[in-house]
Amino acid sequence: MTELFLVLGFIVLVAIGVPIAFSLGLVAFVGISLVDALPVVVVFTKMFNGLNSFVLLAVPLFILAANIMNHGNISQKLIDFSLSLVGHIRGGLAHANILVSMFFAGVSGSSQADTAGIGKILIPSMENAGYDKETAVGVTAVSSTIGSIIPPSIVMVVFAGITNTSVSALFLAGIIPGVLVGVAMMGVVVYYSYKRNFPKDHKIDYKRIWVLFKDSVPALLTPVIILGGILTGFYTATEAAAFACLYALIIGLFVYKTITWKDIPGILKETLLLSSLSLFALATASALGELMAYYGISTHIANFFAGTSGGRPVFIGLVVVFFLFVGTFMDGIPAMILFVPVILPSALLLGVNPVHLGIIVTMTLSMGLVTPPYGLCLLIASSISKLSIERSFRGALPYFLVAVGVLLLVAFFPDVIMAIPRMIMPSYF
Amino acid sequence: MRKVAGAIQKIQIGIGMFFLSVFLVAVLIQIITRYLKIAVIWTDDVAMYAFAWSVFMGGGAMVFPKSHFAFEFLSLSLKGWKKEALGIIISLLMMVFAVAMLVYGMQAVRVFWNHNWISIPSMKMGYTWMCVPIAGATMTIYLISHVVDHILVLAGKGVPE
């Protein structure tokens, strides 16, 4: 009865407009207050201890690296290089939008930073070039989700922390699905380019492409430095994030000379405020996790997943549907803190590799970034274009559906993604 | 009230930015010293506790501009006094949590006050935990400011958001 009251309480709080982080915290606070065996102070010690994990430090650090890159006009350099490669194809700006998201994904690890950094340049450019607003917003929002899939990825780092899975293996496994989502989206652009007569640009000569490539090399090297450092054991994922910040700062200050010391307080402030939103929700979710454990809710959910007939495929299908649903109203990081420990034992029991599970969860939650109401990338892109959420989602839908298609391919055919980690890290499997 | 709350928020953001810089530097020192084979054991603790401080300061500061993610369908569908009344209800509910964070956060500070860091024994754990009640206190101030704003609008002396 108390459990039902708490679930209803959460729904009412969220529905009337209490922020998600506070709704989670209030339910945890009220629920734990009703339990004699648990002192109320546990709510707040759990919040604090929920943050007491070295791996979580990577979250603000990767966001900081992305913000330094954005302020340093590195996004513009990647856009110029991408346009030089695909701008001459019909729908070139849309193709470039996707391609630059794939490049930027290797730099940032944050989908929201991708939408904000690239969207504010490419959405107006696409609209000025004659693309409809829906396409400009839809392509930008959905392609930004690649930021969470291609390494480095904040979501994968957190998943690795929760499940004690190798970050390197997860990063390597994310390469193919990230590229597949990009290629599938480009296929949709090709279809609409001819249907809606999207514009194309002039072909750029190879000398100019070479110049733009050389200009982008320091930025394009970021994923190599991050992945290389982690794979060779030079540093951990969190240290890699800090190193990425230092690297971005050095190339912004001394190589490109596009940022000055005066820009740094602004970059720090932006990073602090953006990262705190997810992490504060994570802290309150940790407190709620304690309550869920007390009432055995975690066990009920685990039993539900473990008890489903149909074995591994049905389990994977349920995980996809469950996280697609959760992702529509909750940020990926608190969602993982609450639910990944619950599904992990069933996954292991059914022989699902944690790396495979991590990619499924990462991709599914990244899809949640474009599904209203809590589709952060869609919200950012729609606010840049000043387009309603309904029209923005309509524009995103074809691209979202092909991305879901790739997700299902990855979910049910794990060999697609496991090839690279098995080849590079055979001893881990 | 709004001006006071705004000034507090600026200070809080400054503190958060300071701790964000501290943990970035601590992680970088950790990498460098490991490869220089210099034994430094405090970087882990400094980085993690600075991180907790930055999250509580940032999370607290984001209450003032109402930036924590919330579904605003109901609020957007209401007008006039109903919208303001809902704003007051939401702020009061959030305040329950913020005040609890202040009260029980203080309790946690007292409990851990005489515990010391393992890596730096001269540092008290109480300082580390102080970010919880400070965030609770600042959130309470911001929420009182929101309630005052809503009441002023209801009384016809303020501008609706």
Please tell me about this protein's structure:
The complex is a heterodimer of chains A (429) and B (161). Chain A is an all-alpha fold and 429 residues long. Chain A has 21 helices and no strands. Chain A has one domain. Chain B is mainly α and 161 residues long. Chain B is 75% helix and 0% strand. Chain B has six helices and no strands. The longest helix of chain B is centred in the first third of the chain and has 34 residues, at 2-35. The interface between A and B is large, with 55 and 50 residues.
The averaged pLDDT of chain B comes out at: 91
Indicate the radius of gyration of chain B in whole angstroms: 20 Å
Distance between the termini of chain B: 16 Å
In N-to-C order, the SSE pattern of chain B is HHHHHH
- List unreliable stretches of 5+ residues of chain A: none
Q: Which stretches of chain B of 5+ consecutive residues score pLDDT under 50?
A: none
Largest interface, Cβ cutoff 8 Å? A-B, 55 and 50 residues
The oligomeric status of these chains comes to heterodimer
Strand/helix succession of chain A: HHHHHHHHHHHHHHHHHHHHH
Q: What gross morphology of chain A would you assign?
A: globular
How is the main sheet of chain A built?
none
Indicate the overall shape of chain B.
Answer: elongated
- Provide the helix percentage of chain B: over 70%
Specify Rg of chain A, calculated over alpha carbons: 21 Å
Number of helices of chain A: 21
